[in-house]
Amino acid sequence: MDQLLNDFSPGLFIMQTVLLLVLILLMVKFAWKPILKSLDDREEGIQGALEAAEKARIDMQNLQADNEKALQQAREERDGMLKEAREIRAKMIAEAEGDAKSQADKIILQAQEAIAAEKRAAVAELKSQVAELSLQIAEKVVKEELSDKNKQMQYVDKMLQDATLN
Amino acid sequence: MQQILASLIFEIIIMKIAKLPIQFLTVLMFLTIGNAATAQEHSVAESNDAGTLDTQEEIDEYIQHHIKDSHDFHLYSYTGDDGVRHSVGLPLPVIVWGSNGPAAFMSSAFHHDINGEVVVEAGGSRFVNLHDKIYELEEGAETVEIGGDHHPVNAHMPLDLSITKSVVGILVIGILMLIWFSSLARQYKKRTIPKGFGRVLEPLVIYVRDELARPNIGEKKYRKFTGFLLTVFFFIWILNLLGLTPFGFNVTGQLAVTAALAIFTLIIYTFSGNKDYWMHILWMPGVPYLIRPVLAVIELVGAFIIKPFSLLVRLFANISAGHIVIMSLIAIMITLKGELTPAGSTLLSFVLSLFITLIEVLVAFLQAYIFTMLSALFIGMAVAEHDHDHDHAHDNVDAEDVRADFI
Questions:
Q1: Fewer CB in 10 Å around end: N or C, chain B?
Q2: Which residues of B touch A11 (CB under 8 A)?
Q3: Is pLDDT larger for residue B114 or for residue B240?
Q4: Rounded to an integer, what distance in angstroms lies between the CA atom of residue B333 and that of residue B321?
Q5: What is the pLDDT of residues B358-384, one digit of tens each?
């Protein structure tokens, strides 16, 4: 202990204290402050970059989700459109069918009417021809009958007889 | 026979070592042989007669001399053709404040004498260098007289503000740190990621900030103290490493240096302590009133004596012990020469000192780490915000709380 105290040099202690104080002040001013500041700046930069990257990743994810959604929507829309088109086609076919049927019905009806009218006309003509024919026959028959006077007289007599009876 | 065997083993080891990376080897050789060189160089100053180290006593004395501060920057010595030992080194300025005011001269004025034989007159006073301490002779005394307790009786120590070897080390490291770290700071103006040596320094700075300052002081307040902690960490670490070089610095093994470092920490945590901190020292909440004054005494002793002492003694003792062990192991070369033959003792000394040098490289970092970590911890305790209530006994006490209460 005595030896240790004897070895303790007050001069060196003073020199060390002064030099260390100066060294600390100089180092803080010229080295540590700028170094620590730069390190902090850099770390903040890295932190910021990481955060930006994370943000970009999330954005990208959102964008992808949006894309996915849009795609889904488009798909749905397409499906809807196809379905609609299919419906329209079915409807159109049905309509066309209906139209055609009614048209056909109408034509048939008209045809039937025309047939009926033709038939009537034919019947009427037939009737008139039959009547004419009958008249001609009757004429010829009458002509023939009336050529014989006896017979005519006989016939008139008979007629008269019938009429008196009435 | 023995010699042949020893040299064989030596050669095998050399071959093994040759396979190691060359840089690694260079560093190790530099460190171990360097220390050996220091050992020889200083022996001269100690024993002026022959200038060589032969006996256990001379070696002990040399080691004792080495771990002390020196007024000379001694590089090496050699015996000239005339048979006289010559020392080669740099003289350092001696600046003392004696009873007749300040005096300054170069240490070369002592001619490497540390036995108080050469008297230098400067500033109206007479000075001698006794075991690397400058003594001022009393009025009228011509030579220094040593009393029974090995202290001079007719001389006293003036205030010695010399640029000693340790001060040179401090200055060199301070300037190096300024150059390295300010150049790193300047690099950030041009680029975000530093190049070259700055790329080595930057992770160390981040390490101290994130592993020492931030966890021990707390997220909110660490910034204010990081400058001090960084300075102290690199200062101690680089000086510890400098102590492993052949220049023979032993700066962090000087009590004065470690004491100054510890007192800086003491001043910082004393003056930044908040109300809670002083409350816990002076009037501990949550204990019976009768015990509080007793605790206050214990806490005051802990805060003002035990904490700084633990800092300064740990660093001083570890570094000094490391130096003593390395030099002792190198000295095996000489002390066991008789028993193991010169080759054997050299081999043993080389292997052991190589091993210890590796450990010392680790210790150099470890001690810087521990000093900085404890400083950060003490500061952290002084500025900590206690949000938990001490008046209520906890049923299951948090391990962290226990730790915080103890340290």
A1: N
A2: 96, 159-162, 164, 256
A3: B240
A4: 19
A5: 999 999 999 999 999 999 999 998 988
Distance from C-alpha of B128 to C-alpha of B71, rounded to nearest angstrom: 12
Task: Choose the closest CB to A35 out of B171, B184, B235.
Answer: B184
Q: Is the pLDDT reported for residue B18 higher than 50?
A: no
Report the residue from B160, B184, B255 with minimal CB separation from A31.
Answer: B184
CB B235 to CB A23 under 8 A? Answer: yes
Place of tokens 């700084």: B308
Give the mutation candidate from A3, A6, A15 for the B interface (greatest B CB count, under 10 A): A15
Q: In what order do the strands lie in the sheet with B93-98?
A: B101-106, B93-98, B159-160
pLDDT tens sequence across B70-108 = 888 887 777 777 777 777 788 888 888 888 888 888 888
For strands B125-130 and B120-122, give the pairing: antiparallel
Say if residues B304 and B251 touch (Cβ distance below 8 Å): no
Residues B12, B16, B22, B26, CA torsion sign: negative
SS3 state of residue A19:
helix
Q: How many residues does chain B have?
A: 407
In the DSSP assignment, the letter for residue B393 is P
Cβ(B77)–Cβ(B40) under 8 Å?
yes
Question: Could you state, in order of their start, the residue ranges of all structural domains in chain A?
Answer: 2-165
**Do B89 and B73 meet the contact criterion of CB atoms below 8 Å apart?**
yes
Residue with tokens 């008789």: B338
Is B161's CB within 8 Å of A11's CB?
yes
Tokens of B321: 């012990």
B182, B223, B256 ranked by CB distance to A31: nearest: B182
Domain boundaries, chain B: 93-162, 166-406
CB A32 within 8 A of CB B227: yes
Residue B22 has pLDDT above 60, yes or no: no
Q: Does the predicted interface ipTM exceed a cut of 0.85? A: no
3-state per-residue secondary structure call for B88-99: EEEECEEEEEEC
Question: What's the rounded Cα separation, in Å, for the pair B220 and B49?
Answer: 63
Contact between chains at B174 and A19 (C-beta distance less than 8 A):
yes
